[in-house]
Amino acid sequence: MDSYNKGLKNYYEEDDIMKNNRIINIIVFFFILDFIILNIICFLTYNYIKLCKVEPVISDTLSINNENYSVKEKKEISDVKQELDNKIESRSSDWNLLLVNSNNAIPNNYMVEVSTIENYHKVDIRIAEPLNAMLQEARKQGLNPIICSGYRTHEYQKYLFNRKINQYRNQGYSYEKSHTLAARWIAIPGTSEHETGLAVDIVSRDYQILDEKQEQTDVQKWLMENSYKYGFTLRYALDKENITMINYEPWHYRFVGIENATYMKENNLCLEEYIDYLKQIE
Question: What does the pLDDT read at residue 3?
Answer without folding.
Answer: 55
